[in-house]
Hints:
4-stranded antiparallel sheet, mainly beta, 3 helices, 7% helix, Neuraminidase
Amino acid sequence: MKKLTCIFILVLPFMISCKKNAAFQATIINDSLFQVITVNPDNIDKKEPGKISAFAEEVEYIPLQTADSILIGETTRLIVWSDLYYIWDKLSETIFCFDQDGSFRYRVNRQGNGPDEYLNIKDFTLNRENGNIMIYSDRGQAFYEYTRDGELVKKSKASFLMSSFAAKGDWKYCYLDRLPNQRLYEDIFPEAYRYVTLNDGNVCNHQLKYEYNEDFLHVPLSSDNFTYYKDKVLLTEFLHPEIYEIDSIGNLNPRYRIEFTTNAYAPSFYGSVDLKRMKEAEKEGEYTGLFGAFYENEDYLFFNYSRGLLGLAYVEKKDGSIHNPGYFLLDDFNQNTLSVILASVDEKYVYLMGEPELLKEKQKRKQFSPYLNEICEGLQEFDNPVIIRVKLK
């Protein structure tokens, strides 16, 4: 196990007023302070390899209610908030809401061409003050906020392209990733920024400056860039894995940097991307990248990584120890193998997703616990997914 190491930083923040049609302004970041998390993908925990009991004390399986009118086609994201599960179904462009026990509560599906409708869902989050559903449509170039009844309460324009967004109060935090946005930065292009804040629809701040290059178009577009930790919003960059905390006026403050020891090549936005070298490193197993969202709670950091296969790593904050369960998880409470892909994490739980068809198939070959056998007996192969709720130690 390795320890988190620290480097020092000088942050130079300044206040920025938000004005319509104002020339863009940028807050300077001196990013020399990150807590560095060093992970060796080859160094898989040997004490109890893959056992979920290493960090969990209980595992629950929560089937989501299924009916002809309640069918989830493709789970793109799970948000857990206020004892409710919110699921974005990409196939139907719908947001479903379920109770903690898996009972259906409501859905928001307003896809269409009308003034109160969205053309598509590029990203979604919640208004954490009232539980409203907030949707960004890149085709509609707008944000939409709906009540649980599907009533549109607010629509605002998004005059640039982004891959992900978060919201807090009147603020929207937008991650533009490697999208060119030449119109937004026409005065300085190919220089551009990857992070923009909006307040009441007005651009307030730009950060994460880089020089756009067409090679970046070959880098996969990220998603799941924003997560929440207590009252904090975190932004994760994936090309060069770095995590920032967003302060009360939308400025980024460096928090964590993840370094993989097996990387022979580490691409970033700080220079051009050597696509040939990147592909060669991937082929030789010498490139590992961050995969999916980065999660933090009071006691842990959790994240997935990709090195051909998807792996799981976590950090115990009390002592900075880094653990690498590797490429599979065993629910040794119920004798079931699990996907390592994180669906969500909050203060008490890690959430994974299970498919009823796969669970039913494994039940024929494995000796599940009586509890899990009973759950499986109540499942049909094509039911909605099962939320696997892992209670943390």
